[in-house]
Amino acid sequence: MQGLIILTLVFVAVVILVSLMFKEIGQRIFTALAFGLISVIFFFISFVVGSWEGIGLGAVSVSLLLSSFIALIAIVLLDKLKINDQQS
Fold first, then answer.
1. Cα 25 to Cα 44: distance, rounded to the nearest angstrom
2. Do 31 and 18 form a contact (C-beta atoms < 8 A)?
3. What is the pTM of this model?
4. What is the pLDDT of residue 63?
5. d(CA 77, CA 67)
6. How far is the C-alpha of 29 from the C-alpha of 71, rounded, in Å?
7. Which of 32, 34, 48, 77 pairs with 60 at a CA distance of 20 to 30 A?
């Protein structure tokens, strides 16, 4: 269970770092949503793979989906904080 939490935190960091490469908020949000879509695709592939490998792939895909939602919230909050700092 700890490994899954660490994996989720690593995925959150990766999604945020990849999205910060873009300047516009729309592209940053799209990046987080793209990671979420990839995780859904991995989840459905895990049913095709089956066995223990499929269970592992399903766990990784759920971790990636959760991290993309967390990163999406963080990206929007960081953008809002940046806008508020520029107005002050």
1. 29
2. yes
3. 0.83
4. 94
5. 15
6. 9
7. 77
